[in-house]
Amino acid sequence: MYEQKTKETENSVIEFIEQVDNPKKREDAYRLLDIFTETSGFPAKMWGPSIIGFGSYHYRYASGHEGDAPYVGFSPRKAKISLYFAPGDEQREELLARCGKYTAGKGCVYINKVADIDEEVLKQLIRQSIDFLQRTYPVQE
Q1: 49-73 pLDDT, tens per residue?
Q2: Digit-coded pLDDT (tens) for 74-112
Q3: Which residues share a beta bridge with 53?
Q4: What letter does residue 104 receive in the DSSP assignment?
Q5: Which of 94, 116, 132, 137 is most deeply packed, by most CB within 10 A?
Q6: Using N-to-C axis directions, what is the helix angle for 23-40 and 119-136, rounded to 10°?
Q7: Cβ distance 99 to 80 under 8 Å?
């Protein structure tokens, strides 16, 4: 059976950020920590060794594959900062068009620095992603 690699851990978010070599990237990581925490309303948790995630949901695909993931998150990587939002949300593209300077993959948005993007649009992306995932994967009691 498939074993999910990226799981929530008890590792310290602050210790992880403090290990970021580049001082500007470390400063941006703290700024993103503030933005994501305030906007999401969830505390920051480490997911795997390098993703800072906020909140979580349980997903189950038609294929039977299931697991847990953070609603939103980010990771200050060496090359770029990865931002994680809900995949499959059509409104994401609309907001990204107003976000600023970025590149995007299937599930990630990559930025060089926080100053390259509109922080208000980032907050909208965070809220939209959480709303989309809460509608798509409602909590099962």
Answers
A1: 999 999 999 888 788 888 899 999 9
A2: 999 999 999 999 877 888 888 999 999 999 987 789 999
A3: 45, 73
A4: E
A5: 132
A6: 50
A7: no
Ramachandran angles phi, psi of 51, nearest 5° = -110, 130
**DSSP for residue 115:** G
HSE-up of 105 (CA within 13 Å, CB side)? Answer: 9
Q: Is 48 left (phi over 0), alpha (psi -120 to 50) or beta?
A: left
Report pLDDT digits (tens) over 104-114: 987 789 999 99
Domains of the chain are 13-136 (3.90.1150.200)
Q: Residue 92: which H helix or E strand, with range?
A: helix 90-96
Q: Which residue has the tokens 């609603």?
A: 71
Q: Which two tokens stand for residue 61?
A: 């695909």
